[in-house]
Amino acid sequence: MTSRLAPVTKPIFRAQLSSKQSNGHAAFVPHIRKLVFEFSQNWSSSANTRTYLQNNLQTLARANPHVEVVVRQRNNRQPIVRGFYLNDNEKVIPLNGFQVTGIEKKVQLLLDSSGAKIKSLKRRTVESTTESARGIWSGLHDTPFQI
Q1: pLDDT interval class at 10 (50, 70, 90)
Q2: pTM above 0.90, yes or no
């Protein structure tokens, strides 16, 4: 009597079946993952932020289901909005002094940005692919010029 045992296979878990998110031809993955609104309940500088949250928070959350929206009370501090991104960066924008439409624009700025650090476009550093004709200069190899 020969008994045949079924080959042992590893179980496949649901987490192993998911693919890695990437931006490409067929899909777009937004860079922002979380928005945190922090405001004071009793400071007058947070009045426009409170108005924005009461009137526009639900439409913002419904329009951006990929973004976790958190509202946090921050007593005796200026109102801010924080954006957390997939590349582990964070951007903070203070909201004091803005009207409701200005707050909308700043939130949209956080939603549209990539979370990368801002680089100056005015002057780029020069990087050469070849060594200079005279070699690398060093203060240790040069004798000071005497008059």
Answers
A1: low
A2: no
